[in-house]
């Protein structure tokens, strides 16, 4: 397995194809089932994340062993099963609910919200609002037919404004990505898909910002602000931290829609200890 590039190369414009038709309908969506308890789900997810991070930075001779260890957990499919079944238990509901509630409050919805759900697994997060949200779901390893198999960094960039999205959803995806630079690149990459002034919805496990050695709420806010987003709404639940970000300076977007560097103020985010203590986790986002 090769190391993913730290920063995504500029993408060639391709035609964007939104899934339509009956396969996109809620009644055709199949979601993985599991019988494990919420505690078991949480344990497997934590183990999977820890291994994912180790794999991203391991030397080639170490990788095979770590990948084998991850396979022994059941691999990605098992991890996703935990996310689609146990996740709702852990989170107190699907991640789309909070996003839709906030959008309804802040935006006069005269038309359906065009939303790109990245890391959608089974593509069910917005299924409860078919009249309100038109979701395009993508995942590296989809678990339903209507979810497009694609890496976010390879997903075709909209060719014109009509194909842009109102919202890009990154729910529990940044923490899934093992490469710390790629996490920052993912936040920047979202600009390419947004209409001017569009939104990015970020969900992370609360511990990523509340108990990390390298991340705090303030630091995350500084990162997204330096990348050209305003924090429109932020709320923590018992286990999650949710952020609705809005692309700042729509003029920059109109002037050079695909030159995402226009949004970045040039601040470099390195690994810097922000909280001391032995019981901290190492969640971190680096950029560029
Ligand atoms: C924890 S799951 C998130 C599921 C769901 N969004 C939620 O909130 O419960 C993370 C998913 O992100 C997907 N993912 C990670 N990196 C990705 C990328 N670069 N492009 C597309 N999907 C990605 C993984 O395949 C995995 O299914």
UniProtKB/TrEMBL annotation:
Its EC number is 2.1.1.-. The keyword Protein biosynthesis does not apply. GO terms for molecular function: rRNA (adenine) methyltransferase activity. Keywords: Methyltransferase, Nucleus, S-adenosyl-L-methionine, Transferase. S-adenosyl-L-methionine binds at residues 119, 139. InterPro entries: Bmt2/SAMTOR (IPR021867), SAM-dependent_MTases_sf (IPR029063). Residues 1-37 are annotated as: Disordered. One of its GO terms (cellular component) is nucleolus. Residues 10-32 have a biased composition (Basic residues). SUPFAM superfamilies: S-adenosyl-L-methionine-dependent methyltransferases (SSF53335). Gene3D superfamilies: Vaccinia Virus protein VP39. Its main location: nucleus. It is found in: Nucleus, Nucleolus. The keyword Nucleus applies. Belongs to the BMT2 family. S-adenosyl-L-methionine-dependent methyltransferase that specifically methylates the N(1) position of an adenine present in helix 65 in 25S rRNA. This is 25S rRNA adenine-N(1) methyltransferase.
